[in-house]
Amino acid sequence: MYSKFVGVVTYNEDGIWMFTRLKSLMKGSFQVVFDKSDGEESQTAARWEVREETDLELSQMQYLVID
To answer: Whole-prediction pTM value?
Structure first.
């Protein structure tokens, strides 16, 4: 499955993980991982973005919304 953008909501048994922006106009705001997929398959793009932005490796994934 291919999408133009991927957004990832990370969570575990304790709840949803939100990340704080450290730079830019929206410094201090909470966010989830989100970016363009650059033509990659959706799960590949999502795993790449999470690893790049958070250093986390996803053990499992589930589609919530598909564009």
So the answer is: 0.75
